[in-house]
Amino acid sequence: MGKQTLKIFNSLGKKKETFKSINKNRVLMYVCGPTVYDLLHVGNFRGPIFFNFLRNWLEHLGYSVEYVYNYTDIDDKIINRSNQENKSTKEISEQYIDEFKRDYESLKINFPTQTPKCTEHIGDIVRFIEDLIKKKCAYESEGSVFFSIEKFSDYGKLSGKKPEDLLAGHRVEVNKNKKNPMDFVLWKPSKNNEPGWDSPWGVGRPGWHIECSAMSSKILGPRIDIHGGGVDLLFPHHENEIAQSESNFSNRFANFWIHNNLINFDNQKMSKSLGNIVKARDFIKENNAEIFKFLILSVHYRSILNFNDKILNQTINNLLKIYSSLKLSSKINESQIVSNPINTYEDYFQDKRQEINAHINNDFNTPAAFSVIFELVKKFNLLSVNKKVTPEIKFFSEKFDDFFVLYGGIFGLFQEKRSNFLKSLNNLLLKSRGITEDYIHTKINDRNLARTKKDFRLSDSIRDELIDLGIELKDNPDGSTGWYVKI
To answer: CA of 297: how far to CAs of 45, 261, 302, 366, in Å?
Structure first.
């Protein structure tokens, strides 16, 4: 399909800009991945879910996307964990890379194109540092190598933080080996029994920031279209990446810097001290990957996402509405009625596609895009619920299904088995109320028996009892009684 105008908020410049790739029909994207020393929490997966959607949208627009997502597999935290468990850092990192892959796979989204590890690129990192030293942008001091921020006049252009302000406003740890307290480490000597690699400056290991610059340039080249990550990486990590890369290659490192915001619980930042860190694996097991993905994409990626029971139940209810309509759509599409296109419906779906495309092209406005989806669900229900299937309804239903196949593939949503997923959603809501589906069916049977005996007082009492538990009954024209959980 032809390229549409896509506007993205660029953290470098703090404004929306029209996206244009460096190479025609191809996008080079690097996103900072996890430090692998533990199971990852829900906040760590906001980036993978969002950037998968972003990649899918670019591909929908006709681009080929090279998406690199790295693992930091040597770090102080990994070393500390290896000491605690009496395992090598390689054993620790490989264990948690495998665990991360398992969690990622459970999300049912596509893996990135490449997932390099820092330790596989030590040679590239050393050569990168050597080049910076030759350009007099870095210096060696007693086995360490530091980047000299005085050599990069644009330092602070991403974050807006200036070196003089940082020095004036913060206490910077004194390091006698640094020429400037704000200089940051590129290479550090290994101490005691820490793992290390040979280098011109002795046995040591890379600093955190240099890893991504070296891996990105090695795999994608010196200039890329998009560099992404969490907003918490904007400074100092991404600021330092810019300084290193642009000093080395004398060109703009990334055209677009895209940052997803954080996840809070009940308006509080996740932290060990508050005891509110939730592992992604636990959340998915307790709920569902579809709920997790929908929750994340229902909030704009640049806004803080707040988790609590109310928002979780609203998400489940929203998915119940969508999947109930999708289930009915499946039933209608299986009917023997021959669909009959009606121009107004063709135009209607064309309008909805244009609306949702416009929202996504406006800095990936997923909440607005989801509002289009709910308008479509409402329209489908008005046409189809408790109605005899007609050629017109069949046509609308087929187009409705096609719509969800297309955009579900882009969002990474709406691909669960419909009946089974609906049952699991209802069970989650029931569990939050401390009741079971069997209990409801027993009460419905008791009510039906009471109605048969014309004991309407008992019948109404059972209905009221269920309403108090948040269960709404619905008597259908065919004599059956349906039910749903009220939010």
So the answer is: 12, 12, 11, 6
Distance CA 225, CA 30 (A): 9
Q: Report whether 442 contacts 433 (CB < 8 A).
A: no
pLDDT in 10s for each residue of the chain, 487 residues: 456 799 999 999 999 999 999 999 999 999 999 999 999 999 999 999 999 999 999 999 999 999 999 999 999 999 999 999 999 999 999 999 999 999 999 999 999 999 999 999 999 999 999 999 999 999 999 999 999 999 999 999 999 998 877 765 444 556 778 999 999 999 999 988 899 999 999 999 999 999 999 999 999 999 999 999 999 999 999 999 999 999 999 999 999 999 999 999 888 887 776 778 899 999 999 999 999 999 999 999 999 999 898 899 999 999 999 999 999 999 999 999 988 877 789 999 999 999 999 999 999 999 999 999 999 999 999 999 989 999 999 999 999 999 999 999 999 999 999 999 999 998 898 888 889 988 999 999 999 999 999 999 999 999 999 999 888 888 877 666 788 777 6
> How many angstroms separate the CA atoms of 61 and 39, rounded?
34
Cβ atoms of residues 215 and 121 within 8 Å: yes
By CB neighbour count within 10 A (0-12 exposed, 13-18 middle, 19+ buried), where does 247 fall? buried
Q: Which amino acid would we find at residue 373?
A: I
Residue 169, C-beta contacts closer than 8 angstroms, at least 6 positions apart: none
Look at residues 88, 112, 83 and name the one whose alpha carbon lies nearest to residue 100.
112
Smallest CA-to-CA distance from 446 within 436, 460, 434 is with: 460
> Which is it for strands 144-147 and 26-31: parallel, antiparallel or unpaired?
unpaired
139, two tokens: 């210096």
> Which domains, from first to last, does the chain contain?
7-260 (3.40.50.620), 280-422 (1.10.730), 435-485 (no CATH)
Task: Output 98-103 pairs: Cβ under 8 A, ≥24 positions apart.
Answer: 99/39, 99/281, 100/34, 100/36, 100/40, 100/71, 102/281, 103/39, 103/40, 103/45, 103/280, 103/281, 103/284
Angle at 80 between CA 76 and CA 85, to 5 degrees: 150
* Exposure letters 432-462 (e unless 16+ CB within 10 A, then b): eeebeeeebeebbeebbebbeeeeeeebeeb
Q: What is the pTM of this model?
A: 0.92
224, β-bridge pairs: 254
Which H helix or E strand runs over 293? helix 289-297
